[in-house]
Amino acid sequence: MTGRRRTRSTFLPIITRSALARSALARSTRAGVRAMAAMVACTSLAAGCGVVPGVTGGAGDDTITVMTWAPLETGATNKPGMPALALAYARHVNAQGGIDGRKIKVLICNDHNDSVDAAKCARRAVKEDVVAVVGSYSQYADSFFPVLEGAGIPYIGGYGVTNDEFTSPLSYPVNGGQPALLAGLGKELAAGCGPVVLVRPDTIAGDELPTLINSGLKAGGHENTDDLHAAEDATEYSARSEEALERATADPAERGCVVPALGDRTSTFMDSFRRARLDYPEVRTGTVLGSVDQTVIDASGGRSGPYEGAYITGWYPVETDERWDGMKRVIREQAFADTRIDPADAGVQTTWIAYTVFRAVVEAIDDGEEVTASTVRRALDDGIEVSTGGLTPTLRWRFQDRLASVGFPRLVNADVTLQVVRDGRLVAAREGFVDVTRTLEGAEVG
C-alpha cells in the first residue's frame, strides 16, 4: 500500500462522489452480470506467480487442489502466517487420511501487494484447476475477482479487506471486514468519549472509513468523528499526533478519544503519539484488530506502552480462548518451529476458519460426486450452514443478505468482539459477540 490515491476496491467505495458512487441498482446489476459470467469457463492463462512449495497429499483423482495467497516479503502489509497455516492444515488433514478419503494439495501464491501479481495468482489458480481459493489476503480484488468469476472458482474466507469480498457472488466471507470493526468500535466509544478523532490514510480507501465509524457513533448517540488525514506511508507522525491530540482535548470538560486506523502504519503513528501525548491532557485510544495484535503491543512496551487501556474491536474471540485449542494443536503438531504462524494473528485465525468452512463443504458433497469448483460452489449456494465451534456465528451465504441495501450483499457475519489492553495483554472487554448489523444498516451511504 502506498500513500498515493490509487483507484482500487479496497475498503468499500460507499461515500457519494460523482466518479465512484454506485446506486443499489447498479450494484445489483453488476452482481447479476458477475453471476452469469461465473458460469462460463475461463481459458487457462500462463502465470508468473511466486510460489512456496505446497502440500501434495496424494496423487490421482482423489486429490483436491486449492490455493491460498497473501503478500509476502514486501515493504508494506505482509501476511506470511496465512499460507503457512494453510500448509500446516493440509498436513494435518492428510495425516488423518484426508477429507472423506480425499487428500488436499495446497498451492501458495505471493501477490506481492501488487495488482499485476494478484491477477497472476488468479490465473495460476485457473490453470491448476483449483476447486477454491481459501483463507487468503489481497488488496487487489479488482484484479483477481474477474479471473476467478470467469472460471467459476469460489473465494472462501478472504480477509475482508476489499469491497468485492462483500459484493461478488463467488465470495464467501467469514468475517465482517473493516465495516464491522469500525462500526463496532464507534458504538463502543460513543458512551465514554468526548471528541473522537479518526486518524486515517489520505487515500481513496481511507476516504471510506469515517462513514463506517460514524455509523457506530450515531448508534450510540454521539456526533460524527473528527476526520484527520495522514500519509499512509510516512515514517513518523509527530505533526499528525499533535494535531490529533489538540482536537481531542479541545474541550477540557470532556475526555477525548484518538482512533488511528492506518493499517501497518498504526504502530508507527503510536510511536510518535506516545511522545506527543505527554504534553496534553489524558485521552483514550481505540483501534481495530489487524492494525494491532499482541505482538505489536509487546513490541511497543506492553503495559508501559501507548496501547495500555486501548479498546480494540476484533472479529473473533481473544487468542487465549479455549475455542482456539484445535488450531493451536494443529500448529504444535504440524508447524511447531514455523515462526511465521502466530495464533493471535487475525490473518492466521481467518485462514483456520476458512479451511474449517471448506472441510464442511467437501464433507457435504455426495459420496461418489467429484469435488470441483462447481460442486463446491453449489454446496455453498444451496444454503449449507457451517459451525465454526463458536469462533463465529453459524455461517450461511445467500445471494442477498440483510446488508445488501447498504452495498454489502455478501456480508453474513457482522459480529465483533470487544477487547481491551490490560497490563500489556489483549483480553476480552466483555463476554460474547456484538452484532453490528443494525448499526451498519443505519450507515449514511450513497
Task: Sum up the structure in keywords.
446 residues, three-stranded mixed β-sheet, 13 helices, 14 strands
Q: In brief, what are we looking at here?
A:
The chain has 446 residues and is α/β, with parallel strands linked by helices.
Structure description:
The longest helix is centred in the last third of the chain and has 19 residues, at 346-364. The protein has helices spanning 24-37, 81-95, 115-127, 141-151, 177-190, 209-219, 238-248, 266-276, 294-299, 325-335, 346-364, 373-381, 437-441, and strands spanning 55-56, 63-70, 103-110, 133-134, 155-156, 171-172, 196-201, 226-230, 257-260, 284-288, 311-314, 415-422, 425-428, 434-435. With 446 residues, it is of the alpha/beta class. Residues 1-60 have low confidence and may be disordered. Helix content is 34%, strand content 14%. It is globular and about 70 Å long. Strands 7, 8, 9, 10, 11, 12, 13 and 14 form an 8-stranded mixed beta sheet that branches. It has a 3-stranded mixed beta sheet with strand order 1-3-2. Helix 2 crosses helix 10.
**How many β-strands, per DSSP?**
14
Distance between the termini: 25 Å
Summarize the biggest pleated sheet.
8 strands, mixed
Poorly predicted parts: 1-60
By secondary-structure content and strand pairing, the structural class works out as alpha/beta
Task: Describe the global form.
Answer: globular
Classify the beta-strand content into a percent band: 5-15%
Quick check: average pLDDT? 84
Reading the helices and strands in chain order gives HEEHEHEHEEHEHEHEHEHEHHHEEEH
Helix content: 25-40%
